[in-house]
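seq:
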Amino acid sequence: VYEGESIYNYLQVTEDERNVSLSTNVLFGVQSVYQKDDAIIHDYYHYALAAPYMAGVLDKPDFRVLILGMGSGTYAANLDRYFPSVRVEGVEIDEKITEISRTYFHLDPDIPVATYDGRAYLAAVRDRYDLIMVDAYQDITIPFQMSSLEFFTLVSDHLTEDGVMIVNMNMRSDREGSINEYLSDTITHVFENVYRISVRSTTNRILFASHDPAILDRCGTALDEDVGPLPYFLKTYILPDLERCTPGPHILTDDRAPVELLGMRAIDDIIRDEIAYYKGVFEREGFAGLFRLITG
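struct:
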């Protein structure tokens, strides 16, 4: 339904009977999805809805959320759907994506979105938020200035005392010294309580961080008090699978944040795994097996 370019991206919007999707010029096909129905699925923006409960959304009449990397507004739309009293602000460096989000993804026109770099925006404002989502990583395209110890310290400074940061990491890699390990280790040197969970059937990994040690207990209590499909989903699939992160030696700083090299290493791992799969098919079934696999 739309195809064009901005100063940052090639942009394509597609639509079917269930979803509207945004694709940009990065490794994997889809960066944002707007669901036309209310189904709760295993995707990062539903997993991340545990964070408001961690930060006490049910007990705060003025709950503020900042999204760094607003994209098409998928997470903002879900916050509005399940927590309509929450105040959401967004930051998105690509103004064209914000225009597309208003036109094709039903982003509420009352939600303000600043056209700015996420870190520069934090440096320019003094507000504090109950929840800050860092969603500026597109596969291996990770802004180095939003991956360092100094950046996460800046995020910490803009959170309330029991506030929560969410980080959506799009590239899953578990080898020693992977980009995800660097990000996790860096964050655990800023926040005392850090938990992660892998999103089923995707490459996404969600990380929750806070200075408040009570976030999991608060979340569990709130989910027991709330009713509906979302609390059931979070109690069943999210809370039991959260894994605590411990501090490690891999730290990214403003002086040294080789995110491009780490991202390329993750891509090399993916390519190696894919080649190994096709090589196995060839060894078992020959060219005929490869042909059947490729042609479907």
